[in-house]
Specification:
With 328 residues, the protein is mainly beta. The chain is built from no helices and 28 strands. The strands form 7 sheets. It has a 4-stranded antiparallel β-sheet with strand order 1-28-27-26, with no helix packed on it. The chain has a 4-stranded antiparallel β-sheet with strand order 2-3-4-5, with no helix packed on it. Strands 6-7-8-9 form a 4-stranded antiparallel β-sheet, with no helix packed on it.
Amino acid sequence: MLSLSLLRSEKSDKQVYSCAISGNGLIAGGNSDGTTTLVRTDRVQSLSNHKYPVSALCFKDTDLISASTDHNIVIYDTVADKVKEKLIIHKGPVRCICVSEDGSLLISGSSDQTIAITNILSTPDVERYLRITESDSGMLSGVCISTDNSLIVVTATSGTIFLYDTTSPKPVQCHYDAHQMGVNGCDLTTRDERNLLCTVGADYLVKLWHVDDYNLTADKVLSGHTGQVLCCKFHLLNNTEHVLFTGSYDKTVIIWSVESGDKLHQSICHSSFIYSISVYEDKLVTCSSDKTVKVWNVCCGRVKTINVLPTSSPEILSDWTSKQISTN
């Protein structure tokens, strides 16, 4: 039986809108004042790379990519401790970003009704812009890209799901009213050689969809949250079990079985809304309007909390031992 045990809680002065975890154990939280909290195993940094709230974060190897309502995207080299690139590729607030599985493409969605596909293998260069064709689409709430880089999914607060062929500027298909009151986020994975999409909504529901040849068909509707569902992440846990994490206004995280749709675990993780989640191996990161970023171990066991930063700690979070974790 799965459970979440708390490894670390990092307090911020402001609400934390976004979070991310890297493969080498770095934790990042994007704050409402434009700063980003970067948590290393030996210290905590505050990065002032934006003027306005940090709406989205993700890692590409050791680079931290942040997007903001100040219209900018910043690529920060965490090894050199300096800004590598500042991208001004949108004319409006940037609401959502993701990086392709092969690390070659950055997808960003903006309130200017464009989705930019940027090649980030070398010097960042915008390959093309995709456009939202619906005038009443609402605010963009999520972007994700398939593992073969052929499909981009965009969600909006109007309740619409847009499906794009990455070679065409206009959507191949628009699925309206996917969620009553709007779609808050999305994630995409491949299972049994098929694209599987998750969307979460203001209707408290989590929905799974099959995407075949740019056609969207409903798979499962999952109910268990008692508030708007704001974020979702697919994950292959221990390389064996396909699970889905969702975070909500109800302050909880639910772990779902992708195969059965069963609720495997539910925990109250924060004292207020959960805005964003990120997962790597057996570590889950959550952030909230309660001004905290939290790191969780996905396992069975009692709750553990980091009281102080470990000294002489390994660079990779997953390598921390029980002796480097103090419990209370």
